[in-house]
Amino acid sequence: MLFETIVKLIVERTECEQSAVTAESTFSELGIDSLDTVDLLMNLEDEIGMEIELDEKVETVGDLVRFIESKQE
Question: Out of 33, 36, 55, 63, which one is annotated catalytic?
Fold first, then answer.
């Protein structure tokens, strides 16, 4: 569910095809820069009802999913 939520937000922001977003996709490959990342994280916080404090570098969609899941436990 978390992966699907992130994909939905990425597709809304970048207008790329949903099928193009995989766990291995890097944010730069998807056309997401640092400002987009901040906006994406704020929208994601609203969607999942959790504050996200990135304290490590995440480069791929899968990295972000794993990071958030580790903070939810």
Answer: 33
